[in-house]
Write a structure and sequence with these properties.
339 residues, single chain, 12 helices, alpha+beta
């Protein structure tokens, strides 16, 4: 609960209490109709006002305290318990308030009139408090969405920067330019194709995709350009198998999800004609599976894991799910949730 919310609690409780108790102020007018039946007593009015306001503040506190009291029922969608306990609080407040009132200021002439008055005022107060609670929950939801979008945008920018750094590091550039140099000498036409795919990789890396989500089809289309570069360099020492159904191809995935995973497989594993590096991409129970055989490269420096950590953070913010990472004796596996 932040400072602004506490102010809203107080002002809302004060305004609601003033509204439901305003009728009694009419008794101040000695010529009015209400003054004939009820004499204004400042002590009695003060008690009712403060008690009504305390009731409003109590309902707000019980229903809006995050992670405790009645808010637990709402967070777990146990609405019948939430409504039942709110009704019990209302009934208890009416009975207690009228009993204390009778002890302090005596029993009214009309039997049951005081309880009916408390019931009317507190029921009206409860209805207005319910409206205030809903407004505050909407404000929280909007604030949380803005915070998540800000965090997601930050995580996306980090992923974009990291991928660019990987593509501009000496190891990547050396392999890329060495392969291009060899292709230029042997096949100039193929070199043009190589440069085209390389430009597509950089263009897609720098592209912004609205909410940072794209269709699986678009992400796979981009991946083809990277695969072409790897195959031109490793030839038959690298193999990739993609098996995605038509029903799954239009599902959503985070922008820049697949290339870093395939790139990690290429970077951290040996690939030879006798023992080719094999990457498999397929769907399984609303998950996209990226699996490669384990052939650790001794000469390759051990990775920091920042790429996977950042990818997991982005999925956690966007999907409220985490990616799953497994390693067996034979395979390294990453599972991405599909929307």
């Amino acid at each position: 609960m932040n400072k602004n919310e506490r102010k809203i609690y107080f002002y809302s409780a004060f305004l609601i209490t003033l509204m439901v108790n305003s009728a009694k102020l009419m008794a101040l007018n000695s010529d009015g109709i209400i003054a004939r039946y009820w004499q204004f007593n400042i002590g009695e009015y003060g008690y009712q006002f403060l008690y009504n306001m305390a009731f409003c503040l109590l309902l707000l506190y019980l229903n809006l305290s995050q992670g405790k009291f009645l808010s637990i029922f709402r967070e777990n969608k146990l609405y019948w318990r939430l409504y039942t306990f709110n009704i019990l609080v209302l009934v208890a407040a009416i009975i207690l308030g009228s009993m204390v009132h009778s002890l302090l200021f005596g029993t009214p002439q009309l039997t049951g009139g005081r309880i009916r008055g408390y019931f009317a005022r507190f029921l009206l107060s409860s209805i207005m408090i319910a409206v205030v609670i809903r407004l505050i929950l909407l404000m929280r939801e909007s604030r949380n969405k803005d915070l998540i979008n800000e965090q997601l945008n930050s995580a996306y920018l980090k992923a974009q920067l990291q991928l660019l750094q990987e593509q501009l590091n000496p190891h990547f550039l050396f392999n890329t330019l060495s392969s291009l140099s060899a292709i230029v000498r042997e096949n100039p036409n193929l070199a043009q194709n190589y440069i085209l795919h390389l430009s597509k990789i950089f263009r897609y890396t720098l592209a912004r995709s609205g909410n940072n989500m794209v269709s699986l089809e678009k992400e796979l289309e981009h991946l083809k350009s990277y695969i072409q570069l790897v195959k031109m360099r490793l030839e038959n020492a690298f193999q990739i198998h993609i098996n995605i159904s038509e029903d799954c191809i239009n599902k959503q995935i985070l922008h820049l999800s697949l290339q870093p995973l395939v790139e990690n497989a290429v970077k951290h594993n040996k690939a030879t004609l006798s023992n080719p590096l094999t990457v498999e991409i397929y769907e399984e129970d609303k998950w996209l599976i990226i699996r490669n055989n384990l052939q650790p490269s001794i000469s390759e420096a051990e990775g920091t894991g920042l790429g996977l950590t950042n990818l997991n953070e982005r999925y956690k913010l966007q999907f409220r799910k985490e990616i799953e990472i497994f390693q067996t004796k034979k395979y390294f596996i990453v599972k991405l949730p599909l929307l």
